Amino acid sequence: MTAALALRAPQLMTTPPLLTMTGVSRRYGDVVALDDVSALVYPGEVLGIVGESGSGKSTLLRMMNLEDSPDAGDYRLALPDLPGNLFELDRFARRMLCATRIGIVYQNPHLGLLMKNSSSGNVAERLLIAGERSFAALRSRAREALDASEFPLERMDARPIELSGGMQQRVQLAKAIALEPALLLLDEPTTGLDVSVQALVLDTLKRLQRDRAITMVIVSHDLGVIRTMADRVMVMRRGRVVEQGLADQIFQDPQHDYTQQLVHAKL
Ligand SMILES: Nc1ncnc2c1ncn2[C@@H]1O[C@H](COP(=O)(O)OP(=O)(O)OP(=O)(O)O)[C@@H](O)[C@H]1O
């Protein structure tokens, strides 16, 4: 066992989870996207969700972001004033919760950003929802979030449509962290970027995680990304969780046939 693993494992086990999902199922017509999925995410950790295309990863993340409702299941976040099953919240309460306590970065920046508004305006929009009304404060807080996302500040008034893919992801990230969310969701955040740009964005995510201990859930079909980012890994196939455990254990000693195939295909 490595020193890092020895230090990390007991910490995870002794802290109550921030996120608890139990028995979540979702069908779309005949397609079973999620079949009785349960998940725990502990404060300050990065949970990586991996699996082939169509395995249900993005659907699960959308559930965590309350964008969709399951056919069955329970979802709790251990935050003040949030008792009960979050799937039972009405649309307004969901929107406020997501805007203020949950951040998300999508693979497709069009889902997360208004492409024709300025980058700083995109971040400020999140702050406005939370009640910030002073122009000077909006601008300085947007600047701070963009800086933390390692976005070049001289371009903060550029529109995302004018920016590279890597820069667009940094704007999404700044928007996602502007209100210091309890949970940051990342759906294939670097897929489609050049390898060198991908590495830089992953570096930023790792630094943010280290400096701010943000609890993250990252979805990727790319085991390299999951290996770089995750403390624990959940492997999905056909809407079910087939294996989960500490990242080192999953990568060094995968138990399920499917995980073994994934890991060996990558090596
Ligand atoms: N809104 C929807 N309407 C119909 N089918 C859907 C919808 N969302 C997801 N599905 C289906 O549910 C299954 C799981 O999709 P999901 O996007 O969660 O998989 P994934 O593991 O994220 O794959 P990918 O990486 O390709 O997005 C797929 O068969 C998909 O076609």
TrEMBL record:
Keyword Plastid: no
ABC transporter domain ranges (all copies): 19-263
InterPro entries, per the entry: AAA+_ATPase (IPR003593), ABC_transporter-like_ATP-bd (IPR003439), ABC_transporter-like_CS (IPR017871), P-loop_NTPase (IPR027417), PhnK (IPR012700)
CDD domains in the record: ABC_NikE_OppD_transporters
A GO BP entry: organic phosphonate catabolic process
PROSITE patterns associated with the record: ABC_TRANSPORTER_1, ABC_TRANSPORTER_2
SMART domains (UniProt xref): AAA
A Pfam family hit: ABC_tran
Name of the protein this chain belongs to: Phosphonate ABC transporter ATP-binding protein
Organism: Frigidibacter mobilis
